[in-house]
Amino acid sequence: MDLEAIRTDYEKRYPQLRELSERLEADVKGLLRDVPHIDRIYFRAKEPRKFVQKCAKGAGSAYEHPLSEIEDQVAGRVLVFFLDDIEATVSLLRRHFTTVESVRKTPEKHDAFGYESFHCVFTIPPQVKPADWHLVSDPPVTFEMQVRTLFQHAWAEPQHDLGYKGDPATPREALRELAWAAASAWGADHAIQRALTIIRGGKSDA
Amino acid sequence: MKLLRAFAYTVEPSRLTQPADVSGGLIPPDRSFALVLEQSAKPIDEDGVPIAFNGTDPVTRSHPVRDLCRALALEVPAKALAASRALAERLARATDSRSETALFVAAVYSLEGGVRRLHLWTFPREEALRFRAGKDPQIEVLTDIFSKRSHMRKGARFEGRDDRVGFLNGKAFDYQAHYSARQVADFWIVTFLGAQLEITASAGTKIVADCLRQAFERSDTAAEKDELYRATIALRASRRPRWSLKSFADEFLPSVDLRQRLLDLAPNAESRSALFDLDRAELESLIDTRIFRLEDGVMVSAPFSTVGKSVQLSGDQNRLLRYEGKVVKEQLRKSSRKRG
Q1: Residue ranges of the domains in chain A?
Q2: Stated pTM of the model
Q3: Is the ipTM of this complex over 0.90?
Q4: A78 and A38 in contact (C-beta within 8 Å)?
Q5: CA A161 to CA B26: how far, in whole Å?
Q6: In percent, how much of chain A has pLDDT > 70?
Q7: Looking at chain B from residue 290 to 329, which residues have their Cβ under 8 Å from any Cβ of chain A?
Q8: What tens digit of pLDDT does each residue of B91-135 get?
Q9: ∠ CA(B312), CA(B314), CA(B315), 5° rounding?
Q10: Which CATH superfamily, name and number, covers A3-199?
Q11: What distance, in Å, lies between the first and last C-alpha atoms of chain A?
């Protein structure tokens, strides 16, 4: 894979990706304007440096045609207050966009704590494409969205900076601390949801 | 763009019969046939609307029609042939005795960068008369011909590579897609292709509501505001399920200038002509009130149902509003106007 050629091609399309992310952000903000308990909605176009890093990951690279295959060239995130808000928000997004993938990401084992988030992949709809989108060669057809609570985000966001993923030499003690932090975030989410349920006068089943 | 393979089947309506009645197979791609296919593809570019497969498996992305399209375009010849027949059978099962026999054609092209393009068409059967002049003039009735110009023909395009993102969406043309009869409107895109309009009902309804609101705010004259208001009411009352911003403007805005100004408010050029299903409940929740600010600062917020009835408007340049009604609630509030 010629990473330099990929970088050059990606940098050519970067202005259109940035405009697409701005238009998607405005679109989703308009969609969720009257929805309560939303802390933040934001989109980003993946920086060229990070795109090339993703292309280079893993032996032999997972992507034969990364310029079209990598689906988070534009990605968005919605942060909500309560666990119950995730499904409601995802439901609205799925009505508004054409869904390709829709998956709740949770740890595989019942006794493990780690990353949690709702991931969706949608097709890029016609009304958000920039006027010069037709000039993008081999464009992506999809974008990614994540919906999380604030606690899920607080745990997930520093992970990249910790730089431990995939490193077998990461000390066990560090991994246990991170698992504890994930469990705490999970617990806080459930506690705040229970509190909300009680305040609203319903039974708590959390 | 190079034609790689083409398949054709006659398709008899088979919704109520088993097995599906189709007949045909691989067609040798000669030059004249390739030319016909190229010409037949023009409406996909000119009149095609963006569509996307609906209900792909959220993990594997499998979808019955997407899977067949991929096999037709990407697989070895024997599997491509089987996929083409399966699509023809699906089309047969989607039609009943109200439809005529049709010719289903699938053509696969190779593009640059390893991309494959798939075109699908259905051409309705017609009868024609062949006349031989001469000493013994004769007329022959031809029943095994299919019209490539009929308004009932339909087409679709999908493309991609053999990966997770190929053949997820495409374009379709169907001149019956905007019909009021839902079964007719949905036949090609929804029932046969298992797809949906890529501008969803939620998004499309929001686009038309946003454009109407903006056009109304920017209108200078009472006549224009009234025209936009009447168009909004007419759209809410219309039984037609499917619109584009352009078809709405053409149908309900007599003023050419106002029509163009509304279309200029569309998010982009593609969204002007892209079809969407109108969500009436959503439209009514997005635009249901007309707000008037009077000369002395009085604000009148009038539900649509009251304008022209209890809320009376008169005049053009200097408009007057008349209203009299029983007070059921009063509030003390801070004015939203800025001081100074």
Answers
A1: 3-199
A2: 0.89
A3: no
A4: yes
A5: 56
A6: 95
A7: none
A8: 999 998 778 899 999 999 999 999 999 999 999 998 888 899 989
A9: 165
A10: Beta Polymerase, domain 2 (3.30.460.10)
A11: 49
